[in-house]
Amino acid sequence: MTLVRTGDAKLIRELNKAIILDIIRKQGPISRAEISKIVQISPTTVASCINALMKDSLVMESGTGVSSGGRKPILVQLNPNDRFLIGVAVNASKITIAAFNLYANVQKKITHSLQNETYSDLSDFLITLLQDFLEDFDQKEDCLGISITFQGIVDADKGVVVYNPKLNMSNVSLKDKMEEALHIATYIDNDTNGSLLAEKGYGHYQQAKNLIYVTIGDGVGASVLVNDAIYRGYLGGAGEFGHTTINFNGPICECGNIGCLENYVSWQTIQSRIEEEMANGKKSTMSMWLKDNEQLTIEKFQQAVLQEDPLALVILDDVAFYLGIGLVNLINLFNPEKIIVGGELANDNPYFIRKLNEFVLKHSLETHTEKFAILPSSFGADSEVIGAASVLLHDLFHSTI
Ligand SMILES: [Zn+2]
Question: Membrane-spanning residues where (predicted)?
Answer without folding.
Answer: none
